[in-house]
Amino acid sequence: MSILIDGKAHAARLREEIGRQVGRLRQHDLITPGLAVILVGEDPASQVYVRNKATQAREAGMSSFEYRLADSVPQIQLLDLIERLNCDPEVHGILVQLPLPPQVDEARVIQAICPAKDIDGFHPINVGNIATGGYGMVPCTPLGCLTLLKFQLGDLSGKRAVVLGRSNIVGKPMASLLLKEHCTVTVAHSRTRQLEEVCRQADILVAAVGRPCLVKEDWIKPGATVIDVGINRIEADGRTRLVGDVDFEGARKVAGALTPVPGGVGPMTIACLLLNTLEATCRQHDIPFPDDIMSLAWGSTSAEMA
Ligand SMILES: NC(=O)C1=CN([C@@H]2O[C@H](COP(=O)(O)OP(=O)(O)OC[C@H]3O[C@@H](n4cnc5c(N)ncnc54)[C@H](OP(=O)(O)O)[C@@H]3O)[C@@H](O)[C@H]2O)C=CC1
Ligand SMILES: Nc1nc(=O)c2c([nH]1)NC[C@@H]1CN(c3ccc(C(=O)N[C@@H](CCC(=O)O)C(=O)O)cc3)C=[N+]21
Ligand SMILES: [Mg+2]
């Protein structure tokens, strides 16, 4: 049986540490980190995430500003709001929940966000800086995955990593981060041939495809570390249930360690969003922050703790 990587517990620890740092900022520097979240439309799942983000931001001592816009909102109105938030000194981080409705140009909206306040790490300036080895905001979901991987495995150098999915918000930045950690990285997607064989090579398998239970037991190399990013709502026995992109019951027979859904990557995504907001706040006020923001995320690895 494999080790269960408890993302929920990790995220709670990380949020506590963030809360302490926020307390310090408020007391010594009289600054309260502020997070603005924009939600367009009424997608129920998105509403849950936005609510969780706002609640957890407040619990960590941050200010949270929520903007709910109608599905039919004209693009110019969204761009105007972003411009206002860019100039607002009480807002240190801006997140626009994706996807956006068809009348809105997603790339245009992302580029409107001031890169220093782009806590999602989606702005081309941040993407480019990360890809070329410089400083940039790191997207929250891949950062959460990397944090869990480093906790579980310590040094990732030389490991074979397979990232399943190539989206701008998960797959591509995940591959970029793993490469930075000196993994040998393969990115697989819907056109990949012999997908199962490719996956079976992986010491580290990150699944981010949005296909319920796609990854089966026999796609996994025995002992591999499996990170399941997928959040899929399925109907089973007349009720909806949340499942990942990995067949959990099968995978736990062969994997060395794996993340559950729920309780794995999801909570880490939100904790990393708060971490990015804290970091953005420090940078905007010229307050020193640990060079390696990860040190806050993984104070100690499981190997060190054992
Ligand atoms: N836990 C969290 O915090 C988060 C979870 N998610 C979840 O992660 C999943 C992925 O999200 P996202 O990256 O936005 O998804 P996208 O739909 O943007 O991208 C999916 C990727 O998977 C590939 N793919 C789809 N089907 C297959 C298949 N059968 N075989 C191989 N590759 C396939 C696609 O290939 P191609 O490019 O060729 O089309 C694409 O690259 C979703 O379930 C989403 O809900 C997302 C963000 C955060
Ligand atoms: N600009 C932008 N940034 C994002 O980071 C972003 C986004 N848009 N659009 C949607 C996806 C999805 N996402 C999740 C966040 C938390 C959970 C989460 O907390 N999940 C809980 C369960 C929550 C539930 O019950 O639905 C868990 O896995 O345990 C899931 C998914 C962030 N995303
Ligand atoms: Mg997408």
TrEMBL record:
InterPro entries, per database record: Aminoacid_DH-like_N_sf, NAD(P)-bd_dom_sf, THF_DH/CycHdrlase, THF_DH/CycHdrlase_cat_dom, THF_DH/CycHdrlase_CS, THF_DH/CycHdrlase_NAD-bd_dom
Catalysed reactions listed for this entry: (6R)-5,10-methenyltetrahydrofolate + H2O = (6R)-10-formyltetrahydrofolate + H(+); (6R)-5,10-methylene-5,6,7,8-tetrahydrofolate + NADP(+) = (6R)-5,10-methenyltetrahydrofolate + NADPH
Pfam families: THF_DHG_CYH, THF_DHG_CYH_C
Pathway: One-carbon metabolism; tetrahydrofolate interconversion
EC id: 1.5.1.5, 3.5.4.9
Keywords: Amino-acid biosynthesis, Histidine biosynthesis, Hydrolase, Methionine biosynthesis, Multifunctional enzyme, NADP, One-carbon metabolism, Oxidoreductase, Purine biosynthesis
Residue ranges of every copy of the Tetrahydrofolate dehydrogenase/cyclohydrolase NAD(P)-binding domain listed in the record: 139-284
GO molecular function: methenyltetrahydrofolate cyclohydrolase activity; methylenetetrahydrofolate dehydrogenase (NADP+) activity
Location of the Tetrahydrofolate dehydrogenase/cyclohydrolase catalytic domain: 5-120
Binding locations of NADP(+): G165, R166, S167, I231
UniProt KW NADP keyword: yes
NCBIfam families cross-referenced by the UniProt entry: PRK10792.1 (NF008058), PRK14186.1 (NF010783), PRK14188.1 (NF010785)
Family: Belongs to the tetrahydrofolate dehydrogenase/cyclohydrolase family.
Quaternary assembly: Homodimer.
Function: Catalyzes the oxidation of 5,10-methylenetetrahydrofolate to 5,10-methenyltetrahydrofolate and then the hydrolysis of 5,10-methenyltetrahydrofolate to 10-formyltetrahydrofolate.
Protein name, per record: Bifunctional protein FolD
Gene encoding the protein: folD
